[in-house]
Amino acid sequence: MTTATAIACSNIALAKYWGKSPRGRNLTAVPSLSLTLSGLRTRTTVSVDATLSEDRVELGGSVASGRARERVVGLLDELRTLSRSRRFASVASHNDFPTASGLASSASGFAALALAAQAAFGLSLSRAEVSALARRGSASAARSLFPGFVELLAEAESAEPVAPGEQLDVEMLVAVTTLGPKETGSTDGMRHTQATSPYYPAWVTAAPVLFAEAKQALLARDLERLGAAMEHSTLLMHASMMAARPALIYLRDSTLRVMECVRQLRAAGSAAFFTMDAGPHVKVLVERANSARVSAALAAIPGVERVLASAPGPGAFLVEE
Ligand code: 2P0
Hints:
alpha+beta; Ribosomal Protein S5, domain 2; Alpha-Beta Plaits; 8-stranded mixed sheet; 4-stranded antiparallel sheet; 8 helices; binds ligand 2P0
């Protein structure tokens, strides 16, 4: 039996990815720029075991079935092909952030899985190859292989680092809002948007422009400009979802209250900028010096259950058990 364990941090897109390339293989239709977060981590152990007659997948302590299991098995199948192995594996994965928080875990999850699994199958893939493997599992996961600020270009096989976390003196606050019924998953949500939203083509045209603006601002250490591009990116993405039929609305009343609070804090002089993914929670990019003050203001908003703070984090890494 060969075992490997990897830890990967989650990442939040500043310039968003939403939509698949017509070229398939889970390539993305638009470029994205993210920040890897130290505070939200997945730890995954993979053991290739000659005694198993099928893969065994355990997520957060429960045996996985259905689509969640299939996605993991799909990645293991690729590694069996690459390593010319016919062995099965057991996979155990845990998030260190509150699992009931409704925060997406596929980015850190598939990054940790890809890194641990290729090692357990005896391969020593390059970072770019592991990123490409993770991307085919879940596109945002490609970015979690790298530290700090990371890009995944449209139709790119793998992500690439853009700048270290220290490029800007920032933290990300996650305002976890009251949970509602289970939301539409990202993969289904983007397919539905592509198929039915008249605003989707406009999103695909606008997203690369915003990505370029965000990247330029980041490289120039211009937080105000980065923040402006970041807010426009998430609002354009959500506009394309809301114009789908039936509408895909991830934002709640509490989401809007947090956005309004961020605007007020900014008007009062705190550099703070919001972004939302496929859920009602709000991530707020803040100058580190303002983090405690902004966090306290967000925590006082009705409907905000808790606020998590995270510094920029490292790329995925293997650990000794
Ligand atoms: C992102 N999201 O760039 C965007 C913004 C959510 C909104 O990538 O279908 O789990 O597995 O490739 O990567 C979430 O979607 O989707 C995501 P799949 P993924 O972070």
